[in-house]
Inverse folding.
């Protein structure tokens, strides 16, 4: 039997139908894989707790243990916590906010009245702590009451597409 290849379709009798079906099945699987990779790359948004509490509008769940009601999908680089306390009386919270931003915040800022703790991190739900310490860790900075979350490498828009390019290349080689 003679096969003539023209634009990736075989032209022949009997066996050509089977080969065309195999090519169609390959194409279907490739489309499914590309779709799954695309869906996975779209889920790279950062999930952060977002809430705020002030002395006059105190929200205990925001300050002590944020819940899923405060979760938001952020298109920013970092989750953060900004906690502002009075210096006297010690540990009295003037305000606290959890959110997300493109700015990396880290450190303690003080004046004669307030002490401000600023924390940033790059993992889902990483801004759930007190803003002063990292639960279960002894990685302290400054006065041993601030958490430092360096995060990971910056994200790239081309990064999630690399598996798609590799898949297309493999498909064309088959």
């Amino acid at each position: 039997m003679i096969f003539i290849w023209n634009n990736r379709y075989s032209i022949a009798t009997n066996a050509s139908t089977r080969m065309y079906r195999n090519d169609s099945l390959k194409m279907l699987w490739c489309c499914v894989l590309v779709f799954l990779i695309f869906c996975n790359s779209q889920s790279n948004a950062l999930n952060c707790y977002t809430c705020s509490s002030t002395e006059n509008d105190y929200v205990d769940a925001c300050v002590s243990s944020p819940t899923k009601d405060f979760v938001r999908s952020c298109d920013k680089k970092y989750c953060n916590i900004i906690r502002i306390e009075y210096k006297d009386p010690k540990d009295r919270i003037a305000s606290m906010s959890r959110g997300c931003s493109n700015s990396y915040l880290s450190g303690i800022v003080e004046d004669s009245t307030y002490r401000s703790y600023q924390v940033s991190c790059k993992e889902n739900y990483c801004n759930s702590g007190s803003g002063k310490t990292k639960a279960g860790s002894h990685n302290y900075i400054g006065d041993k009451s601030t958490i430092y979350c360096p995060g990971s490498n910056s994200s790239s828009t081309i990064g999630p597409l690399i598996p798609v390019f590799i898949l297309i290349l493999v498909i064309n080689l088959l």
Notes: The first helix runs from residue 15 to 42. The chain is about 25% helix and 30% strand.
